[in-house]
Write a structure and sequence with these properties.
The chain is an alpha+beta fold. The chain folds into two domains: 55 residues, no CATH class; 89 residues, no CATH class. It is elongated, with a radius of gyration of 23 Å. The two termini are 47 Å apart.
């Protein structure tokens, strides 16, 4: 019965190792590559990808703010937020690339605010009462150069999708087995 009690203790180092490497990484030519590495390094060690997509992505982060009075103090609170990108505003009726039939990313539509798109509702309810004086939207626009690479390392290995933003690895995701 004692051998069964020791069995879970044997898995603790494995669990600690897995939790330490929570970000996705790939190993190419003996090098471990993950978020923050440059596109040039990935190309040097992993070679040319099977598929490349490059585009300019415009983002607008919309933050709903409120000026409130709590007791005798006046403060500003963020009460909600959502993000729009030029990639998720493309409709199916938009022009498409001829060779890949992918939608062509358009510029951001006219600047409006949509309460139904708020994904992070951060309205804070405090113990004391407060009065909302006014509310407004704070919007920040940024432009990001995006490259998306698809690597097929062959049978028995997972397809790898690497997303670069401004020349640096932003995320790595794995798909089905390659061919």
């Amino acid at each position: 019965m004692r051998s069964y009690a020791r069995l879970p203790l044997a898995f603790i180092p494995l669990l600690l190792t897995l939790s330490a490497h929570s970000e996705e990484t790939i190993r190419c030519d003996g090098k471990l590559l993950g978020p923050g590495r440059s596109r040039i390094e990935v190309l040097r060690y992993c070679g040319e990808p099977q598929d490349k997509i490059a585009y300019l992505d415009e983002k607008v982060i919309h933050r709903r703010m409120a000026n409130v009075i709590v007791g005798s103090f006046r403060e500003t609170r963020q009460t909600g937020t959502y993000t729009e990108t030029s990639r998720n505003t493309v409709s199916h009726d938009e022009p498409r690339h001829k060779e890949s039939d992918r939608p062509v990313a358009q510029s951001m539509p006219t600047h409006t605010h949509d309460e139904t798109k708020i994904v992070t509702d951060t309205t804070v309810v405090s113990q004391s009462s407060y009065t909302v004086l006014s509310s407004y939207w704070d919007c920040m626009k940024s432009t990001v150069y995006v490259d998306e690479y698809t690597y097929n390392f062959g049978t028995g290995k997972f397809m790898t999708f690497v997303r670069f933003e401004n020349g640096r690895v932003k995320s790595i995701k794995f798909g089905e087995y390659g061919f």
